[in-house]
Amino acid sequence: MFKWLRGKFSNDLSIDLGTANTLIYVRGGGIVLNEPSVVAINQDPVRGIRTIAAVGTDAKRMLGRTPNNLSTIRPLKDGVIADFTVTEKMLQHFIRKVHARKFFNPSPRVLISVPCGSTQVERRAIRESAMGAGARVVYLIPEPMAAAIGAGIPVEEARGSMVLDIGGGTSEVAVISLNGIVYAGAVRIGGDRFDEAIINYVRRNFGVLIGEPTAERIKHEIGSAYPTNEVHEIEIKGRNLAEGVPRSFTLNSNEILEALQEPLSGIVSAVKMALEATPPELAGDVAERGIVLTGGGALMRDIDKLLTEETGLNVIVAEDPLTCVARGGGRVLELIAKDERAIDAFAIE
Amino acid sequence: MSMSHEPSADFNPPTESATPRAESLGAWLACTRASHGAEPRDAARRLGLNPILIQAIENDDFERLGPPVFVRGYLSRYARFLELPESEVLDRYRQQVDTSREPPPLKVVHPRRRQTQVRDLRGLLYLLVVIGVGWTAVQNLGDLNPSRLSAWWASGHRDSATQPASSPMAVTTQTQYPFQPKSAETTSEPTPPPPAPTASEPAPAPRPEPDPASAVAQLAPPAPAIRPEPAPAVSAVTLATTATVSATVANNGDSSALDARSDARLMLQFSEDCWVEVKDAQGKVLANGLMKANTTHAIAGPAPFTVTLGNAPAARIALDDRLVDTAIYLPRRGTVSRFTLTPAP
Question: How far apart are CA B286 and CA B325, in angstroms?
Fold first, then answer.
């Protein structure tokens, strides 16, 4: 009963609960939160009680730099919940953060996009987690659908559109037509796998150990998916495994391209499989219009060229691909506000 | 934004030094294509696009290309084909077209709301009717008797067309059916039966008391009713209780219309409980029900009588004061016996 009352003082939210970042779109307010999905947990050495020390950007600053009593956790892995309790606390923190009113605990309607390859148990965990964080109603929609809507693809048309959402934990490819997903495929390859590949490459070829934040910085600055004449370089620091002392060295974009070959080929394979499984009429539409790239992975340099080269299709990187999923969910929320039954067309459960 | 020239028209291909800012994006792309010596059809074939799309791009008719996300895709592709910087082409597109505007709202086509709500309730109504009929049938199952129904069909229903409801066939019998533990008394009038003189006792027989334990079926014959004659053979038997069942047939009180054989009399005496059904020549049921042990029943009506006995060995029958040998009617198996009694001429 109080949830209903508190709901009157809450805003409807669209949450992109990503492995790397969590974005929140408030209905009528746009994207209001974009923070890393990282939680720092403080463990009391005497009583053994675990408490939340920091969430989001603050926690990410601590990543890899924590003392013994503090640990940083990424509660989502491969797009699904890996630590239920911490995810609930993180969501609760974010929901409160986007509500200015402090008198009532917010109890909003929440729309969360979930990977289409997630199991029913994983989806239930996400729903329960959001409910535990104070949500009044939880809607779940598939991530590729939200991404397509956010990218501006006319999903209601009787024309096939292919969207590839490269997230932090998963890459999902889907063919969409008439507000429905005709084909959806997901591979557990995303930004995290790119970072991991860079770490392994540096350790193997340079004998230097680097951390996740450094690998991520390398990916952002000189990461490339397609060979070009223009070579970028970056100077990084890590611990030399043989000497055990910190060393500084230089990496170039061609080396990173080599490091990323394996995860990139996994994504290309997923797209090719999707094209093979697409019905011919829709495949014709996709061939004419092209593939739309969304998600943080779409920001990797020349990834569209790689996909164009591999598939022969036009590949378009959506405007502001990082926020496509949250914005798409927000557009669905706007629709729900006018027509409650509209969620039936998009919701998974 | 309309182009001032057609791509295929004769126009001077601009040189590289031409200022692209001075013209629209479509014109710039068209000029560049022409400088490469390519026709729009060639460009469309090389890009795998419909020539109409190339023409729309060069005419700055971007609305025709669909949503902005795909327009940017087409422009990128075309820019790569023309070896132009993609970023500059896309920037020109953003400047030329207001891409900051909100995308059109989502449209969801709901399945047509079914207009069959009343039809849905109709099934429920059918169900309720069936349940009601079934419930009524179960409640009234006790009153249903196949033989009674057949008798009704054979006689009552047939005669109902000719006889009024207050037919003299006032079968005011108290009938006990096998599945009716104790029947409701439906006797029309407690008219005492005529005295039954017995041989051993010339005095009039004592007036039979209405014994609820005994199956008493009384018929109140409308005047003129045929009074049963004394039956010495039967009356010699001392009975614990005596009940008389007399059935008379009178057509609207006109006794003269009676059949010549309507004066046949049947006396039934039972040593044990026995289910009995007696029909007269017209098929009318004169007696039907469970007759208690040690009771005697007198029936009058047009002969021949069709008799069905549930416990034949327990019955003694006298027709027109003559004892009938029921042994010949005993069945080979069981105790149910069916036979027809015709009075001797």
Answer: 21
